[in-house]
Amino acid sequence: MSAVIQQNDLQKLSPRERQLAALRPFKPGDEWKGNAGGKPTAARNRIQGDFLNALAADFEKNGKKAIADCREKDPTAYVKVVASLMPKQIDMRSNLDELADEQLTSAITAVRAILIAEYTREGTGEAEGAEPLKELSALPETK
Question: Under a CB-based contact definition with an 8 Å cutoff, are residues 122 and 113 in contact?
């Protein structure tokens, strides 16, 4: 597009092309006026704040009923809301990952002793009708 557009040429342009033709590039050394003609400073923050305050007030007044209504009338939407509030990623690491084999063996021995004591009623003998402790076979035998 040429730098100078004649008035009758403007009439042939689409509204968007007319808008673009009216623009002039910012030249180094030109004084910048900041928010020249844009939205007022902090308008978005103020509107968001007002909206969130109104939403909070409404939720305080009607929130429990709205949740119950949603759960009863549209369980799918209710579950979607609950799911959206859940963390996207769950850290499944365990402190056990950081233990050395000897520490794990000691922990297993301690757990085994606790379970045996519970199973035999705190060491007072076999529980009535109890069979030998086969349930702990998944735990490695300690030496």
Answer: no
Longest dimension (CA), the chain: 107
Main-chain phi, psi angles of 135, to 5 degrees: -65, -25
Tens digit of each residue's pLDDT (9 = 90 or more) over 24-70: 776 766 666 666 566 666 778 888 989 999 999 999 999 999 999 99
Q: How far is CA 39 from CA 42, 45, 119, 134, in A?
A: 8, 11, 73, 74
- What residue spans define the domains of the chain? 43-85, 96-138
Half-sphere exposure (Cβ direction) of 67: Cα atoms closer than 13 Å: 8
Task: Tell whether the torsion through CA atoms of 27, 31, 33 and 37 is positive or negative.
Answer: negative
Mean pLDDT of the chain: 77
For residue 9, which amino acid is it? D
**CA–CA separation, 76 and 63 (whole Å):** 18
Q: What dihedral do alpha carbons 32, 33, 36, 40 form, nearest 10°?
A: 130
Q: What residue type is assigned to position 73 of the chain? A: K
Q: SS3 breakdown of the chain: % helix, strand, coil, rounded to 5?
A: 55, 0, 45
